[in-house]
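Hey, I was hoping to borrow your eyes for a little while. No rush at all, and the record is pasted right below.
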Amino acid sequence: MGQEPLATVAELEEGLRQLHKMEMQTKLALERVEALVLAAVKVLQRAELVSEKAVLAEANDQLMEVKRSHAHDAHIQLGPDVDKHT
């Protein structure tokens, strides 16, 4: 006796569509944040309140800090690559 599949092809396709939609929403949100940050930096540079060199140095420092603070977050563990031809 065969076991019923956990999901139909249609259900899997719908799930993939939902994941794609969530990915695109996240991508658009990140693009908006990036545009706002760049706009703020440009305005501050034009007003000669910050230098590009100082902003880039601080951005690098902050990136390292973010990586350190997120080091213990949950991550997806992937197994080794599988050669589908063997």
DSSP finds two helices and no strands in the chain. The mean pLDDT is 88. The CA atoms of residues 25 and 31 lie 10 Å apart. The radius of gyration is 22 Å.
